[in-house]
Amino acid sequence: MVQRQLTGSRIRERRVDLGIRQTDLANAVGISASYLNLIEHNRRRIAGKLLNDLARAMQVDPSALTEGAETALLDQLRASAARDRAAGAEVSRTEDFAGRFIGWASLVVRQDKRIDELEARVKVLTDRLAHDPQLATSLHEVISSVTSIRSAASILVSDDDIDRDWERRFHRNIYEDSQRLAEASRALVSYLDAPSEEGTASLSPQEELETYLDAQGFHLPYLEGDGAPQRAPMLRSKAASALLSDYRTRYLADAETMPLKEFSAAAIEVGHDPALLAGRFGVPLAAAMRRLATLPSESGHPAFGLVICDAAGAITLQRQVSGFGLPRAAAACPLWPLFRAFSQPMQPIRRDVQLPVESGGRFRCYAIASPAGAASFDAPATMEAVMLVRSVTPSGGPADPVGTSCRICPRSGCRARREPSILNEDAV
Amino acid sequence: MAKRVLVIEDEPNIIEAISFILSRDGWTVHTHSDGETANERITATPPDLIILDVMLPGKSGFDILRDLRESPQTTDLPVLMLTARGQTRDREMAERLGVTQFMTKPFSNAEVLESVRALVRD
Fold first, then answer.
1. Higher pLDDT, A388 or A14
2. Which of A76, A158, A372, B63 could be A109's S-S partner, Cβ–Cβ 3.0 to 4.6 Å?
3. Which of A12-21, A158-167, A194-203, A365-374 shows the highest mean pLDDT?
4. What is the pTM of this model?
């Protein structure tokens, strides 16, 4: 049985992480070290009282040793196999593989996830370059100036009998355009040559914040628990630090109303259904969705993506997960439930969506649009939409077709298309 | 009677240079800088040829071209499109919309003159 084998490995990992000797742990739960060794190497079943004792001795919830991780690992392995069917992975023997070679299985999953992240990043960066308004403006300015200079200089060189007034005028034009060209070139160079330490120099404040949060898995342990929360660290830019401060405030409020331990257990119990969790903790649905996206994935929770946007469609916060990410600089595909939520404020939306990829690319999305901030009689409500995203295994069930953004979406005949695709010339 | 060319472009120095070389070649040159009102201007006094920039304030050259081709009055009007965006997809977009000729900036004066002469024949 795969489950007991993997549970043993998790017990061993936890013990090693805590720095407890095998003999000490065995003594603490009243078994021999050799028996514990067999358990840790997945050669003995473990359940019931002994499992609970071991979990208590290692200060961890028993479910964290037995549930979720195995399922997640197997799901991820199957997803990896589905991504490249041509490789011919023996999908029917996934459990056997994971059970016998847990390290190799984890490596496959980690590398697959890394490939996904890199591919998503390349897509986003490519899209950003194509749409970046600053880059487009600088290039347009350079080319316009060069065109004007070339044309005027050509007239002065090739027209011998040019009128004095015209001559002066073109000289002045060349001078003005050379000034413009110098300015535009400087702007372009400084844009492209920005310092690159930590890879965040040319990021927007939102992206800088998300880079930081992503490194923490969007889970901030220093804001959990009963102790006084530490101050948020300073990020490179003041703007990003201010955004982190706002994020910290909201995170603290969510952590207070949905304490980590209780919420984590409840999430597993209800299959991570955000509506059930919102009801159980008496919080708005959007808050439960935010909280789900901050759960530590090593505790057996699936990786949740999260996107928050304002009523103009501008993405204010995003947690990307394997295979999922919406462009920030370019306009995203309007078919995502995130944007549809604005047409039905306060109405929860749950939809499965499908990206135009050869394998995988199916997600279950939960979205809701609701007022952000306190209500006022003197000002219109400021709305924001929140969407929680979870990867699901493609099945024969219905799923709404979506894309990332029109420019990199190969779908043909899409009623929401705004511009031609660079991936499919027929996609209009 | 001199043939009329309408230059729709928002860069004043480019307008001046094109106007100069075409005028010296015997063309009557009119200019317009606003994309939003360009189609009205064309409909009011249709020229023999339009030199059309892509990036214009108010309305893009692509949209202006699309409207021209949808109107029976201007559906066959020669349009020379100038753009700083010379990517293949922009050229293809222009061709799909019915451009007569597509030219990328920075162009040479001789190229512009040659194209105008070729597109408007007596």
1. A388
2. A76
3. A365-374
4. 0.46
Q: List the single range of A164-168, A236-240, A355-359, A376-380 with lowest mean pLDDT.
A: A355-359
Report ipTM (2 d.p.).
Answer: 0.90
Average pLDDT along chain A: 83
CATH of domain B4-119: 3.40.50.2300
| Contact with chain B for residue A135, Cβ under 8 A | no
CA of B93: which chain A residue's CA is closest? A420
Sequence spans of domains, chain B: 4-119
Q: How many CB pairs under 8 A join A and B?
A: 60
For every residue of A246-287, DSSP letters joined together read HHHHHHHHHHHHS-HHHHHHHHHHTTT-HHHHHHHHT--HHH
The better pLDDT of the pair A354, A428 is held by A354
Best mutation site among A126, A131, A145, A147 for testing chain B: the one with the most B CBs within 10 Å? Answer: A147
Could you tell me which chain B residue has the CA closest to the CA of A422? B89
Please give the torsion angle defined by the CA atoms of residues A188, A193, A198 and A204, in that order, rounded to the nearest 10 degrees: -10
Q: Identify all chain B residues contacting A166, using CB atoms and an 8 Å cutoff.
A: 20
Residues 6 or more apart whose Cβ sits within 8 Å of residue A349: A337, A340, A341, A365, A366, A367, A368
